[in-house]
Design brief:
Layout lengths: L13 H17 L4 E5 L6 H16 L2 E6 L2 H13 L4 E4 L14 E5 H10 L7 E7 L7 H4 L6 E6 L17 E4 L3 H6 L5 E6 L17 H8 L2 H15 L4 E5 L2 H13 L4 E4 L5 H13 L4 E5 L13 E4 L6 H9 L10 E6 L3 H5 L8 H6 L1 H16 L16 H5 L3 H11 L5 H17 L3 H10 L1 H14 L5 H22 L3
Helix pairs in contact: 1-2, 2-3, 16-17, 17-19, 17-20, 18-20
């Protein structure tokens, strides 16, 4: 049996006590088969809250509680909290094949895949469950379990009540959303650290959107692994986060490895972590990060949930995402409050703040729950409009290659409308743009080969201009843009070869 004296119970804050009472009242009022979704920001203490709900449900309803997680770290954290409040519990991991001792426990914590395997072998694997609690309920993997507990209540908890799959909205499985304290209220109440946000504009035109609706890892790696983006990251770190304990979130392993190499060359204390690490190596890296002042940890998709290190002082989002959930998960890793920490820094290197707003901003979660498509579409369309309002930012050190002032003196949008006002075809703006790019290259080129190399240096700038041009003519299909870009580069290269000597 569990030795309860090993664990120290956390006392509920007033808002947490109020939440426990609200949830239990909803379950009592609506009876069995009622599914409730509860939203609370990362750092608000969801584990403490739902553990206390489990304790009181067992006491008042006289039935068992099942808690579902998707990470082993979350299972362990939950088990420790339950033990601290003297709830006899058992973690069902891959080694647990049978529950001959289940009468000794009132609560079970299980990884979703493990439990699904057991239930497919025996649909009464855990008997007399009255409440199923789903941690990180926005993940869709939990749905497969619901069919086995149609006569029980289901309580989902999440910081962001938006399904990880747009085609499977949460409102299909939950009858009601209960919204907890807002981020700004938790900051004002002294429960969370406030955030100071720094934005660095990034040209994202090379990114591609995958089948999951987010930017693909391959296109993100290509963009964020290049020299200019590494330079921008280091500049941002040195400007905002120098000597602060820092988490860097990346989209791909290649990027994170490159980040580690770039920082190590400058003698910074940094380590890389991703999902391919063994359990031992993973624990070693996390322990190193916890005990090392000013440490930098660069990672990929492994520290967004189930990782709690209050001493984090700076969050660098070295990626772009279209997932509001991921955005909040990343930032939430820095929001834990300490007696000597009331503020942390956010560095955004993916235009994410423009896409989703500041972390502290109010979000109408009821609207997100009831009308998820409308809620998401409004943000994506705003993103597309905003991307075209952003001026191109030349990489640090660009003027070593060619004078940016020549390129900045030409605006293709203005040129397009000036052509129309004169009665010329809008296509003339393309010819004038080629002339401007050629002028910049000619001013810096030593010979033909050098000029053609410089042409490759300005590919991002060329794409940026042509995106604006296609926006002007409302003809922005992928095929047309590809044709336009190929034609533009061919004509610019031809002009270089005709006018610059070998």
């Amino acid at each position: 049996m569990i030795d309860f004296d090993l664990y120290e119970a956390k006392k509920l804050y007033p808002f947490q006590e109020q939440t426990v009472n609200q949830v239990l009242e909803e379950l009592r009022k609506n009876g069995a088969n009622f599914n409730l979704l509860y939203q609370l920001p990362t750092g608000g203490g969801k584990t403490v809250i739902f553990s206390e709900i489990a304790r009181r449900f067992i006491e008042q309803w006289g039935k068992k509680v099942l808690i579902l997680t998707h990470r082993i770290e979350l299972s362990v954290q939950t088990s420790q909290q339950l033990s601290a409040i003297k709830v006899a519990n058992k973690v069902i991991n891959s080694e647990v094949k049978h529950l001959d001792d289940q009468d000794e426990y009132q609560c079970f914590i299980a990884m979703v895949e493990t439990l699904n395997n057991r239930l497919n072998e025996n649909d009464n694997f855990i008997a007399d469950v009255g409440l199923v609690i789903v941690d990180e309920a926005h993940y869709n993997s939990f749905r497969k379990i619901f069919q086995f507990y149609e006569d029980a209540n289901i309580l989902g908890v999440t910081a962001t009540p938006l399904s990880s799959n747009r085609n499977l909205p949460l409102k299909d499985n939950y009858n009601k959303l209960l919204v907890g304290e807002s981020i700004s209220n938790l900051i004002e109440g002294g429960y969370l650290s406030n955030a100071e946000t720094y934005q660095y504009d990034v040209n994202l035109h090379g990114l591609k959107i995958g089948t999951n609706g987010d930017f693909t890892v391959s296109s993100s790696d290509l963009l964020y692994s290049n020299f200019f983006m590494q330079e921008k990251l280091i500049f941002a770190y040195e400007e905002v986060s120098l000597n602060k304990k820092t988490l860097i979130f990346n989209a791909g392993i290649e990027t994170s490895r490159r980040v580690e190499d770039s920082f190590k060359k400058l003698k910074y204390n940094i380590r890389h972590l991703d999902s391919t690490f063994s359990d031992k190596d993973r624990k070693d890296v996390i322990h190193w990060f916890k005990v090392t002042p000013g440490a930098i940890l660069t990672s990929v998709g492994i520290l967004t949930t189930g990782f709690d290190e209050p001493t984090v002082e700076s969050i660098i989002i070295n990626r772009a995402t279209r997932s509001l959930t991921l955005y909040h998960q990343m930032i939430g890793r820095g929001s834990r409050k300490l007696p000597n920490k009331s503020e942390f820094q956010i560095i955004d290197l993916g235009n994410n703040v423009r896409r989703f707003g500041y972390w502290q901003d109010y979000i109408n979660w009821q609207d997100a729950f009831k009308f998820p498509d409308r809620f998401l579409e409004s943000r994506i369309s705003e993103l597309e409009d905003m991307e075209f309002e952003v001026e191109f930012e030349f990489p640090k050190g660009f003027d070593k290659y060619m004078p940016s002032a020549i390129l900045e003196e030409f605006n293709i949008k203005d040129c397009y409308y000036e052509c129309l006002d004169r009665g010329d075809k809008g296509k003339v703006a393309i010819d004038l743009s080629i002339d401007n790019h050629f002028k910049a290259i000619e001013s810096a080129a030593n010979n033909l080969d050098h000029a053609l190399d410089l042409m490759q240096v300005i590919q991002d700038h060329i794409e940026h201009r042509l995106k604006h041009y296609t926006k002007c003519i409302s003809k922005s299909t992928d095929n047309y843009f590809k044709y336009l870009l190929e034609t533009y580069n061919r004509q610019l290269a031809q002009k270089i070869r005709l006018n610059i000597e070998d």
